[in-house]
């Protein structure tokens, strides 16, 4: 075999092998960037060294393409062109190729470990998302029941308020109809105060006091109902905000679950 053929074979083996390895490393690097897996700093440095090594190897191989080089150049090429019997093994067993294969194996191992870790985290995320969605559905049911209860309480409060207002109007009307001033202005000195008369006057006074107590009690109950109505409105607003928050959380959970399923497929 001629020297030019030996040089061409050496060039073909080393250059193609380096190109193939470099392409695979670049593909792994791009995959790690797309998937979000962080490559260790040591492996990233090894990848840079491999790229530099490849850029240095290619010009040396291209320099042997010319078949009309001087004898001095051919003598230089003889220094690193192996014999025909050991040409393949010498090219594969060279220190740079061994280092390249070692770095490639380390990078592949690291990428596999990161992918396994990512898949485990993705699987756990899917499980947690399904669990959160289930709990969210149960919370929605409880929230609906709570909302119905609050509406019933508000309706009952409004009804009680109307009843108390009607009672108040009726009692106030009875008080107005009762001519209390006549009893106060009536001159009782002209009559003799017998036991029956004194007893009747005491009863009338007690009735007046009782009516005023009822009136004050109704006013107090009315104020309490107004305060309760305000609290119910605030509670209703809080429940509506919680309902909106749960709906938003449900939408976010469904979106995250869909993304995780896509990641699992990758």
List keywords for this structure.
disordered N terminus; mainly alpha; rod-shaped; disordered C terminus; 2 domains; single chain; 266 residues; 86% helix
Please give the structural blueprint:
Layout: H1 3-35, H2 41-62, H3 71-78, H4 87-92, H5 95-177, H6 180-185, H7 195-265
Helix pairs in contact: 1-2, 1-5, 2-5, 5-7
Coiled coil: 154-245
Keywords: Coiled coil
User: Alpha-carbon distance between the termini?
Assistant: 50 Å
Radius of gyration: 48 Å
**Overall number of domains:** 2
Tally of separate helices: 7
Strand segment count: 0
The helix content, as a percent range, equals over 70%
Structural class: mainly alpha
Mean pLDDT: 67
Query: Approximately how much beta-strand content do the residues carry?
Result: under 5%
H/E series:
HHHHHHH
Uncertain regions spanning at least 5 consecutive residues: 1-13, 59-92, 182-186, 261-266
Coiled coil: 154-245
Keywords: Coiled coil
Q: What does this protein look like?
A:
- It is a single chain.
- This protein has 266 residues and is mostly helical.
- It has 2 domains: 3-93; 132-265.
- 86% of the residues lie in helices and 0% in strands.
- The chain contains 7 helices and no strands.
- Helix 2 packs across helix 5 (95-177).
- The chain is rod-shaped and about 135 Å long.
- The protein starts with a helix and ends with a helix.
- The relative contact order is 0.09.
- The model is unreliable at 1-13, 59-92, 182-186 and 261-266 (pLDDT under 50).
